[in-house]
Design a protein that fits this description.
Layout: H1 7-26, H2 42-51, H3 59-76, H4 92-103, H5 108-128, H6 133-136, H7 142-157, H8 163-176, H9 193-212, H10 221-234
Length: 254
């Protein structure tokens, strides 16, 4: 959000972003394919497999998986998304918020409050480290999105409004993804990017549940963020969005 905005204007803008997330989800088509042909139809396959009883876990868990794929696919197919914090990680936050808002019948106002919590943690990460794969690897993108989502989930579900628990959730989620490299196949934000949104979303749920249970991060959130920044600085440029290393450099990836 821009600095110097009034509270009313900021709320309006965040409501708009929440609406865009929902609209993007609703615009998904199983027949859509990315220009490369590498991405498309995965979310629908998850939903269909769940309906046939072929998947592990309950409806909520599999809806999170399907939603993460759905938004990531929409991005690859050039549909409108909310970069949260980036386009490559755009599926993580809506993947946890949309199914939870439906399951718990949460009001838009409540979800928007959680989005401000997510944005706050995202801003701190951007200031202290990075949210760009080109400078910090995928830990800076999917890792940050997962940390933001974990904090938002705690804000939604913790009746005591314990914002220290939000920080613990953020720290735990980010800790779990430290060192994750950015290695897009063919230089496209498709493989493995879309599927990594699922990992970010499920990691956020696990971190949020630990924080809600009273489990603390042994390393404070600020220090975890700083560590992420240092790891990004030490990471080879081959592993930071150049497609010269990791999966992009495998025989198949080439």
């Amino acid at each position: 959000m821009e600095q110097h905005s009034t509270r009313e204007v900021s709320l309006q803008k965040m409501h708009h972003l929440w609406k865009v997330m929902q609209t993007t989800s609703q615009s998904y088509s199983p027949s859509d394919r990315s220009h490369s042909g590498l991405v498309g139809g995965e979310s629908a396959r998850v939903q269909q497999a769940f309906q046939h009883g072929n998947l592990i876990g309950d409806a909520f868990l599999n809806e999170v998986i399907a939603e993460a794929l759905k938004i990531g696919e929409c991005n690859a197919c050039m549909k409108r998304i909310v970069a949260s914090p980036t386009a490559g990680s755009c599926g993580v936050l809506p993947a946890v918020l949309i199914p939870l808002s439906q399951k718990e019948k949460l009001s838009d106002d409540k979800v928007v409050e959680a989005l401000f919590v997510a944005a706050g943690f995202g801003e701190v990460i951007a200031e202290r480290a990075s949210i760009a794969g080109a400078s910090g690897g995928c830990q800076a993108e999917i890792g940050t999105a997962s940390a933001m989502s974990a904090a938002a989930l705690v804000a939604l579900m913790d009746k005591s409004e314990n914002y220290e628990a939000c920080a613990d959730a953020c720290a735990i989620a980010l800790s779990n993804l430290l060192g994750l490299v950015c290695d897009p196949v063919a230089g496209l934000v498709e493989v493995p990017c879309v599927q990594r949104n699922v990992a970010g979303a499920l990691n956020a749920i696990g971190a949020a549940n630990m924080a809600l249970a009273g489990i603390k991060s042994q390393i404070p959130a600020d220090e975890v963020i700083d560590a992420m920044g240092e790891i990004g600085d030490q990471m080879s440029t081959d592993l930071k969005e150049t497609s010269r290393g990791g999966l992009a450099a495998t025989p198949t990836g080439k």
